[in-house]
Design a protein that fits this description.
By secondary structure, the chain is mainly α. Helix content is 59%, strand content 8%. The protein has six helices and two strands, in the order E-H-H-H-H-H-E-H. The longest helix has 11 residues. This is Transcriptional regulator.
């Protein structure tokens, strides 16, 4: 998948626990876990905004695009 979720990295950098972030953002710990592992199809901008507010970061600090190796060989 070309979109990489680096939420765990930002949580570690900011020394914030997942449970704390979920509470401040207003989402369940289960949904946060799915986001952290990249097993979601999408994320609401309002949720992304709230995560960035709490972690004092930019969306690009959390989400990263990497092209598939298959596309590069074509």
């Amino acid at each position: 998948m070309p979109i990489i979720v680096n939420l765990d990295v930002m949580l570690a950098k900011r020394k914030v626990r997942g449970k704390e972030l979920a509470g401040e953002v207003g989402i369940s710990e289960q949904n946060l876990s799915l986001l952290r592992t990249g097993r979601v199809k999408g994320v609401r901008f309002s949720t992304l905004e709230r995560i960035c507010e709490v972690l004092q970061c930019q969306p690009g600090d959390i989400l990263e695009y990497r092209s598939d190796e298959n596309e590069q060989s074509e």
